[in-house]
Design a protein that fits this description.
Blueprint lengths: L8 E4 L5 H14 L11 H13 L4 E6 L2 E10 L9 E8 L8 H14 L5 E7 L4 H9 L3 E12 L2 E11 L9
Parallel strand pairs: 4-5
Antiparallel strand pairs: 1-2, 2-3, 3-4, 5-7, 6-7
Helix pairs in contact: 1-2
Amino acid sequence: MQRSPSPFILRPASETDMAGVQRIYGDHVTNGLASFEETAPSIDEMRTRFLTLKSKAFPYLVAERDGEIVGYSYAGPYRTRSAYRFTVENSVYVAPDCSGQGIGRALLAELIAECEKGPWRQMIAIIGNSGNSASIALHKSLGFRMVGTLREVGFKHDQWVDSVLMQRHLVPDPGATS
């Protein structure tokens, strides 16, 4: 009989979590297509990125199980020009051996809830690889709608890779009907 994994907790990330975050992200950079980075950033670089987001009051969360970081999510600026200041882009990554356990869903749901408390109106997901059906389904299940696909805009692991764009309102959609 296979034992189910122990429960995880969600909490705000801290600087000391960046080694675990870097381990997860580094694996996705090295082995996957979700990120268009081709060289895994160092722990110091991940710490710098974290501190930059925290200094601007963007939410950054981790999932922890038995003292180990098993996933993380954060929101950051969608674009740097000032007119985009009310739009955020999300990122969600889960340790490869923890996929399918509800961690990504919990992280993204909590991230959305945190962003709804802030000044932002829209959340954008830019999903690397149009074949990433799990991430597309996750975002769709939490209220994102498909905006479009940018075909073959990245080249990684000797192949052309798409970017899928999805969008979610963080405030009630004025055009929605009840």
